[in-house]
Amino acid sequence: MIETYKFQPANFNPDTPKELVLLSIIAQSFFQPFSLEDNLLVILTALTSGAGIGFNRAALFLKEGDKLKAAMWLGPRSPEEAAAIWTLLSSPGIGYAEIVEHNRELLTRTMTDLQPRLKVLTYSLEDDYFKLPALAAKNKEIILVKQAKTEPAVDPNFMDFVQVDEFLCLPLPAHDEVMGIIVADNAITHAPITLKDIELASLCALLAGNYIYTTRLYKRVVEMEKMAALGEMAALVSHQLRNPIVAIGGFTSQLLNNPCDRDKCQRNLNIIQEEIKHLENIIYKISHFLRINIKELVAIDFKPIIKGILERPDIMAKAKDKQIILRLPEETPFILCDPVYFEEAITNLLDNALDVTPSGGQIYIRASQRNKKWVTIIIKDSGPGLDQKAQEKMFSPFFSTKEGGLGLGLLFVKKVMETCGGKVEVKSRPGHGAMFRLYFLSKERSSNNEKDPVSRR
Length: 457
Known about the structure:
Helix content: 40-55%
CATH architecture of the largest domain: 2-Layer Sandwich
Mean pLDDT: 81
Number of helices: 14
Low-confidence stretches: none
Largest sheet: 7 strands, mixed
Radius of gyration: 32 Å
CATH topology of the largest domain: Beta-Lactamase
Number of domains: 3
CATH superfamily of the largest domain: GAF domain
Order of helices and strands: HHEEHHEHEHEEHHEHHEEHEEHHEEH
Shape: elongated
CATH class of the largest domain: Alpha Beta
Distance between the termini: 57 Å
Strand content: 15-25%
């Protein structure tokens, strides 16, 4: 006997335990390409949805430097608006995606009107004396405020904004610091805030703090990687440009300062011209290889393109003392990509394979239909192979195992594959060459495609 179960409730159901609903709502952030703002909106949704914890409203304050600033407010502005919202959200078939989208639209509408008032709710975290709600962030503790209208610890500006006698302040902790706070209340229903409400809300606060911390940490890591890549690029560009620039400068000085016969002047000018071409090639690779712009994926008949690459004079010259073994099946689906970028990607891999394969060695090019979804193209060389460290860094910008290599070719191939919805895999070990397997989305041949397949630039 087999029994099947769903991972989480598909729709909001008032009979589902709040703990399960809370977990299910928050879990949506793992299934969607949400930004930090959307993830925080998911948290506020979990706090304010009727099937969730059920607070009427929730406000988010974020720590920015030494300031605590109001950043987001979710909830109805009047009993009439609340009734309309809750009627909509209780409709049959309303699921998580619908309620988050609804709350995103609600947030957009309300924030336009509330933004001027929210600007007033900014607190310095370096003051000697704190008022609520900032006190919760300073003390790193959950604070339930009752009889708020007569409580001297409550900031009058905040009290004027919320106009409620009971509210809950939830700090958002992460890694020994507080990333902000959430303030929740029941301004519409005036329902008391229970211990269970506080316990469930505290889980939301922990997750919100983690979202903010990890997002900011990720941004710092990305910036560090960008700076490291920029440093590598500066060093590499400086190294690559130095020799041709020095050569151009030296031979230009000879032409300007020393008389020379016609043959010597012509030789110097030819060298200068060649070095300028070298500079142009370096600049082209740096500017072109990292900028992939595919507006639309098209169905490509890849076999004529690969055969055309093998007939190029530069490829034939490199392969004159090596053997290229080509195996392409008679019938294969088309692949989805851009024909220009596809040709450049294959040429890059083949060029690398020819560079590392010794005289008398073999390069294999094979294509096959892996299944209905994927077509694979394999390029395998007979070179020295790659160790584990080189394989881990091979798609990093400016990493190259070739003398004088820019280290952009494999990164270009990877970017092309990702932009075309495919992927590239590498299998190699020292002494046994390297095999690159490219996965392309397939498209079945049809009568229309048969008449006009894309196979050339």
